[in-house]
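Action item from last meeting closed. Structure (376 res):
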C-alpha cells in the first residue's frame, strides 16, 4: 500500500532548499522503508563494479576490511581479491546463494569460522590463496558439496585434519602449494573420490603414511615437489589407479625401492625425481635399470638425476656413472675371486712341494742307509 505512494515520491528529483530537502528525505525514508529490501541490494556496493545484469561483481583492491553486506543477490561470480579482509564469519554472504565463484585471494584472512560457506550450495570455485590461514576447522567445508576447485596455496597451514575436507565430495582440484604442512591425517582426503589434482608442492612433509591417498582413485596429478620426503612406504601410491603424473622432484630421497613405483597400476605414469640427493651405488643403478624397463612408467627426468653421495661422485649425473657403479662391484668380486684362487693355488703348490721334499728326504735317507751299508 505504501509502495504506491513511494513510487510517485521517488520519481521527481530532490527539491531545492535545505528545509525542503530535509522534509523530502524524511518523507522518503518513512514511506520507502517498508519497500526497501530489494532496492539497495540490487545496487552495486561502492568500490565494486557490477556487470552482466548483476551476475558478476568485481570488488578487487577496494580496501574492504570485511565482506561487504550489500551485494546484488543475483551475483554468481564475486571477486573480493586484494582487499584487507581478515575474517570470514559464519554464514558469510548468506544473501548470495547463487554464487558459483568466490575469489578471496590476497587478503589478510586468518580465521574462517565453522560453516562460513554453508549457504553457498552452488559454489564451484573458492580461492583463498595468499592469506594467513593457520588451520581449517572441522566445519570449514560444510555445505560445499558441489565445490570443484579449492585454492588454498600460500597460507600458513601446518596440519591437515581428518575432518576439515569432510564435505568436499565433488572436489576435483585441491591446491595446497606453499604452506607449512608437515602432518596429513590418514583420513584427510577420504571424501574426495572425484579429486583429479592434488598440489602439495612446497610444504614440509617428511613422511606420508600409507593410506593417505587410499580413496583418491580418480587422482591424475599428485604434486609433492619441494618437500622433505626421504623414504616412501611401499604401498603408498598403490591405490592411485588413475595417476598420470607423480612429481617427487626436489625432496630428500637418496634411494628408492623398486616396489614403491612398480606397485603403481596404471596405463602410464610419468614420475619426476630430479633434485634429490641420490646415493649412487650399484643398488640404485639396479633399481633404476629395472624401473626404466617397466613399460608403463616414464622417468622423464632420469637424464637430470645427479649423485650427492659418495663424495667422489658428487655432482656427477647418474646417467653418466651408472654403468660404472656396478663395475666397481664386479671388480671387487673379481679381485676377491682371484685372491682366493691364488691362495688356493699357493696352498696346493706348497702342499705339492712339501710332498716332494718329504719324498726326496726319504730318498736321501734310503740312499744314506745304503751308503752306510756299503761303507762297511
Ligand atoms: C592483518 O591481520 C592481522 C591480524 O590477524 C593484523 O594484525 C594486521 O594489521 C592486518 N594487516 C593488514 C594489512 O590489515
Ligand atoms: C597452485 O597454486 C600455485 C601458487 O599459487 C599456482 O602457481 C599454481 O598455478 C596453482 N596450480 C593449479 C593447478 O591451480
Ligand atoms: C635438465 O638438465 C639440463 C641440462 O643437463 C637443463 O638444461 C634442464 O634445465 C634440466 N631440467 C630440469 C627440469 O632441471
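Sequence:
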Amino acid at each position: 500500500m505504501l509502495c504506491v505512494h513511494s513510487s510517485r515520491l521517488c520519481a521527481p528529483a530532490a527539491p531545492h532548499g535545505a528545509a525542503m530537502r530535509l522534509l523530502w528525505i524524511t518523507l522518503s525514508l518513512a514511506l520507502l522503508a517498508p519497500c526497501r529490501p530489494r532496492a539497495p541490494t540490487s545496487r552495486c556496493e561502492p568500490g565494486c563494479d557490477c556487470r552482466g545484469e548483476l551476475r558478476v561483481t568485481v570488488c578487487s583492491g577496494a580496501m574492504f576490511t570485511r565482506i561487504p553486506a550489500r551485494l546484488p543477490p543475483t551475483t554468481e561470480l564475486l571477486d573480493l581479491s586484494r582487499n584487507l579482509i581478515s575474517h570470514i564469519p559464519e554464514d558469510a554472504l548468506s544473501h548470495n546463494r547463487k554464487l558459483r565463484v568466490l575469489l578471496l585471494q590476497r587478503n589478510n584472512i586468518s580465521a574462517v569460522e565453522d560453516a562460513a560457506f554453508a549457504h553457498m550450495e552452488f559454489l564451484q570455485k573458492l580461492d583463498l590463496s595468499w592469506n594467513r590461514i593457520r588451520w581449517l576447522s572441522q566445519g570449514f567445508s560444510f555445505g560445499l558439496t558441489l565445490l570443484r576447485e579449492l585454492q588454498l596455496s600460500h597460507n600458513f597451514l601446518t596440519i591437515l585434519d581428518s575432518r576439515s575436507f569432510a564435505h568436499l565430495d565433488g572436489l576435483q582440484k585441491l591446491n595446497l602449494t606453499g604452506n607449512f604442512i608437515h602432518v596429513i591425517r590418514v583420513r584427510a582426503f577420504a571424501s574426495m573420490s572425484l579429486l583429479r589434482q592434488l598440489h602439495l608442492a612446497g610444504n614440509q612433509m617428511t613422511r606420508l603414511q600409507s593410506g593417505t591417498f587410499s580413496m583418491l582413485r580418480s587422482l591424475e596429478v599428485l604434486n609433492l615437489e619441494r618437500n622433505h620426503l626421504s623414504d616412501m612406504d611401499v604401498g603408498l601410491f598403490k591405490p592411485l589407479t588413475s595417476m598420470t603424473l607423480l612429481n617427487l622432484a626436489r625432496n630428500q630421497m637418496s634411494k628408492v625401492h623398486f616396489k614403491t613405483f612398480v606397485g603403481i597400476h596404471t596405463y602410464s605414469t610419468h614420475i619426476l625425481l630430479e633434485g634429490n640427493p641420490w646415493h649412487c651405488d650399484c643398488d640404485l643403478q639396479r633399481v633404476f635399470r629395472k624401473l626404466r624397463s617397466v613399460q608403463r612408467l616414464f622417468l622423464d627426468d632420469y637424464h637430470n638425476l645427479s649423485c650427492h653421495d659418495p663424495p667422489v661422485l658428487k655432482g656427477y649425473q647418474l646417467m653418466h656413472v651408472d654403468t660404472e657403479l656396478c663395475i666397481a662391484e664386479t671388480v671387487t668380486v673379481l679381485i676377491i675371486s682371484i685372491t682366493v684362487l691364488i691362495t688356493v693355488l699357493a696352498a696346493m703348490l706348497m702342499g705339492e712341494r712339501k710332498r716332494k721334499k718329504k719324498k726326496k728326504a726319504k730318498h736321501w735317507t734310503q740312499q744314506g742307509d745304503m751308503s752306510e751299508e756299503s761303507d762297511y
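Note appended to the action item: Helices lie at 2-10, 18-32, 38-41, 258-262, 282-292, 318-375.
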